[in-house]
Amino acid sequence: MQRIEIKAEQFFELLRLKDTPMWEIFAQMIDGNEKEIIFLDNEDKVLFNYVLPADKEKLEEDRKEFSKQFSDKLANFN
Residues 29, 6: contact at Cβ < 8 Å? Predict the structure, then answer.
């Protein structure tokens, strides 16, 4: 499995500047092989990782699950 390391702060800033969803970028990276995307802080410490699936159908399932979990966490936060 290919490993891709991404500096989280710069990645999310670029998404914000380009007004592009993270899931759109992930969809463009799909090539039939799983990839481990590792998000790093500015000191190269691992913040979190995500296994990019081999197909867009699984990516869509992941997106929906992420959205649900994120919404649930926000609801519990308030």
Answer: no
Which residues constitute the domain of residue 37?
2-77
**Count of domains in the chain?**
1
* Alpha carbon distances (Å) from 49 to 17, 20, 36, 41: 23, 20, 7, 12
Q: What's this model's pTM, rounded to 2 decimal places? A: 0.81
Locate 77 and state its tokens.
């936060």
- Rounded CA-CA distance 36/50 in Å is 6
The pLDDT tens digits for 5-50 are 999 999 999 999 999 999 999 999 999 999 999 999 999 999 999 9
Whole-number Å distance between alpha carbons of 78 and 39: 27
- Structure tokens of 44? 């190269």
